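Weekly structure sync, notes
Attendees: PL (lead), two postdocs, one rotation student
Agenda item 3: pending single-chain targets
PL asked that the sequence for the first pending target be pasted directly into the notes so everyone works from the same version. It is reproduced below exactly as submitted, 209 residues in total.
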Amino acid sequence: MPEKISVLLVDDHALVRQGFRRLLEDETDMLVVGEAGDGLDAVKLAQQLKPRVIVMDCALPGISGLVAARRILDTSPDTAILMLSMHSEETWVRQALDAGARGYILKSAMELELPVAIRKIAAGVTVLDPAVTRPATLKGESNAALTPRELEVLQLIVEGKSNKEIADLLHLSANTIAVHRANIMDALGIHKTAELVVYAIRNGLVNIP
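Predicted structure, written out during the meeting:
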């Protein structure tokens, strides 16, 4: 009998995770091995359980699903991550794929598509919801993707933290944070903090505090 596809479920709503679990328990070739309610727990459980597939919401408390995905794939590059989102905009899709996700589907269609998507990404196939815009990353075009550290800094900027406060939280120097801030603005073509905050929220690069 073929080995079952092990799945880790990550969503900050317990009822949503319960719905995922019930849906996947009906699939004879899948096994839910764990659940996480935030990005940090997702990283820890991914290291402990080593699931073949992680089904993860983009927007999570603490660190976002995008940052969590990068951290997980740093240590477990063979893990297939399927991002779930309420957003169909290209920016969300591009950031998810840049983070290493192998699939991106909308929560609105997930009940019908989730098992199929899990099987495909487990087999190495990239899965995109038909309703989302195909991003430039799949067309071979350049993009201004931010690094995991820059995404962390951007999140804290949006939360209104100063360079010194961000430096203390991330155990870095204020000068290093200033460089990160400048690099983020250069990458996105933005020159004012207020504009940066608006852009980050509108394009789903951060969790809204």
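Discussion points:
- The longest helix spans residues 174-188.
- The chain is about 50% helix and 15% strand.
Action: rotation student to compare against the earlier draft before next sync.
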